[in-house]
Structure formats: structure tokens, C-alpha cells
Design a protein that fits this description.
Elements (H helix, E strand, L loop, with lengths): L10 H36 L6 H18 L3 H29 L2
Length: 104
């Protein structure tokens, strides 16, 4: 079990806890990427583009709202999420182009 930040008594305790959190974050990011891969299939079937601006802005607003609720800097959350969104859209565009090329 992960100890709270307040119960960490030294830098070793803190670093261990941070490493555990980083591992959990990476697991969640990998899971999110699998959802992005599934979006490629669904968007391709529905003839939707990789970038849907209204959805991008909704995801960013959700990130800001969630950050605020969690006591995290919403501006930093937005920066991180916009980078992640751009990576995701690029991943979708690459996969969608490969699908089109393969169907020729």
C-alpha cells in the first residue's frame, strides 16, 4: 500500500512512493493509449476525422476541472493534456492513414 506524503519520514520514503505513483500513471497512460487505438477503428468505420476540435476542448476542460478538484494546478494539467491529446491525434492519423493505404 502506498503511504501518504505526510507519513514519509525521509527522501527514501518519498522517492519510493513517487516511483510507485509513476508506475501507476504509466499503466494508466498505456491503458488510455489502447482506448485511442480503439478510437481509430470506430472513427474509421464512422468516417470521422482523428481531430474533433469540440472533443479536444471538452477533454481539456475536463482535465482542468479534475485538476482543480484534486488540488492540482489546472494550467499545468491543461499543458500536459494538450500534449497528450496531440500525441493521441497523431497516433490516430498515422493508423488511419495506414488503414487507408492497406485497403487500396
Amino acid at each position: 500500500m502506498l503511504r501518504s506524503a505526510e507519513t514519509c519520514q525521509n527522501m527514501t520514503d518519498l522517492r519510493t512512493a513517487i516511483d510507485v505513483l509513476d508506475s501507476r500513471i504509466m499503466t494508466l497512460l498505456a491503458q488510455r493509449a489502447r482506448y485511442i487505438d480503439r478510437a481509430v477503428v470506430i472513427k474509421s468505420a464512422a468516417n470521422l476525422p482523428a481531430r474533433i476540435d469540440v472533443r479536444v476542448e471538452a477533454v481539456v476542460q475536463n482535465a482542468r476541472t479534475n485538476a482543480t478538484a484534486a488540488g492540482f494546478d489546472p494550467a499545468l494539467a491543461e499543458t500536459i493534456w494538450r500534449q497528450m491529446i496531440e500525441w493521441s491525434i497523431a497516433r490516430e492519423e498515422t493508423a488511419m492513414a495506414a488503414q487507408k493505404e492497406g485497403s487500396k
